[in-house]
Amino acid sequence: MNTHVLRLVLLTALLAGCATKPEAHKGEQKTSYHRPLTSVGALFGSLPPTVQSTVLAEAGGGEITDAYRDASSGRVVYKIYFRDPDLFPPLYVAPDGSVLNYDLTVAVPAHRGNLIKPSEVPPKVLKIIEDHGPIAGISTITKEKWGSRTVYVVTFKDLAHYPTLFVEDDGSLVEEGR
């Protein structure tokens, strides 16, 4: 009789174990990644063409680990970081392609158009420049063609206090990059 009771208890336990409801799979996949994956190529590709050109000219084959747009200083700066910071320190680039120092002053100005002197600038443009910064503080003036428009790009030595100006030949200010 003990064997019959033992068999009955085992059979009941076995049937009770099989009768549990299977756990529903929620479609979630367990992974150690908690944010979207980005590639170095995607980071580099998200930079404006002028900034890309500057990075290639300054760092060539340096392996980029991070690149992003920063406007916390009140102006746009692209910050590029490399795998070997001793060989390639962080590179700060202005939207016009100028290489910036850590204090955001221009280290190497970008030259996309023809360099001209203040004396070669039309009077209407010169008036706008004088209204926005000292003539003696000008680093470079380039005359560029933006489609059918002529734009004078004026960079000052002290970019922290005098941002880059984009002035059409009729004396009107143009927003950066437009």
Structure description:
- The mean pLDDT is 81.
- Helices cover 25% and strands 25% of the residues.
- With 178 residues, the chain is of the alpha+beta class.
- A hairpin with a 5-residue loop joins strand 3 (91-93) and strand 4 (99-100).
- The longest helix is centred in the first third of the chain and has 17 residues, at 2-18.
- The strands form 2 sheets. The chain has a 5-stranded antiparallel sheet with strand order 1-2-3-4-5.
- The chain is rod-shaped.
- The chain is built from 4 helices and 9 strands.
- Among the domains are: 40-105, Nuclear Transport Factor 2, Chain: A (Roll), CATH 3.10.450.360; 114-168, no CATH class.
In short:
This protein is α+β, with helices and mostly antiparallel strands.
List its salient traits:
178 residues, alpha+beta, Nuclear Transport Factor 2, Chain: A, five-stranded antiparallel sheet, four-stranded antiparallel sheet
Given the helix and strand composition, which structural class is it?
alpha+beta
Overall 3D form: rod-shaped
Low-confidence stretches: none
> How would a textbook summarize the main sheet?
5 strands, antiparallel
Strand segment tally: 9
- Give the amount of beta strand, in percent: 15-25%
Give the CATH topology of the domain at 40-105.
Nuclear Transport Factor 2, Chain: A
Topology:
Layout lengths: L1 H17 L21 H6 L3 H11 L4 E7 L6 E6 L8 E3 L5 E2 L5 E3 L5 E2 L7 H10 L5 E9 L2 E8 L8 E4 L10
Antiparallel strand pairs: 1-2, 2-3, 3-4, 4-5, 6-7, 7-8, 8-9
